[in-house]
Batch of 2 targets.
Target 1
Amino acid sequence: MSTSPSIDLETFPNPNPGRDYTIRMRMPEFTCLCPKTGQPDFATLYLEYVPDQRCVELKSLKLYLWSFRDRGAFHEAVTNELLEHLATATRPRFMRLRAEFYVRGGIYTDVVVEHRDPEWTTPARVELP
């Protein structure tokens, strides 16, 4: 069992690559450091994606997120970096990451970033009666 952070994101083959489906994750323990003060910043991350051929492996994702604990990063920069690494590792049809940072100085910050495969067409939404 690993007891240290890692920058390696592992993936596994999508068990249903012929179907569009959404994977949603909520990660309430993300931590990095404020680059100005060195104080910890806390966030809940919301990841949702439509996989293509690869899915992200959860233990490696946990260890990857842990690697940010002692790094200074602005909210906007770290959210974009996380999405870039996740999208590069999995090459999804669509991916959205929302970082909901806890209050600091009376200000809440939410950063939302998206990745879209240009070849992917969003399926029509089905409205049920």
Target 2
Amino acid sequence: MRTTLSLDKDVAAALEKVCRTRKASMKSVVNEALRQGLTRMADRRPVPRERFQTRVLPVGRSLLGNLDNVAEVLAVAEGERFK
């Protein structure tokens, strides 16, 4: 397959250096690099993250009673002028 690649300057310089060092063609070096890189990319599994846990702190019972009813809590906190 014939294709055109646009390489960043640093990648092109590294490619040319490897070609000179190995006395190999650009085609063979690019193919080898792509094979190795694509194999590593395909085999890469997601890194397991350390599980995060929040510490539970006892704060005692609520001084406002039931906190499920927001209107009731605001009425107690702000007085009856809330309504």
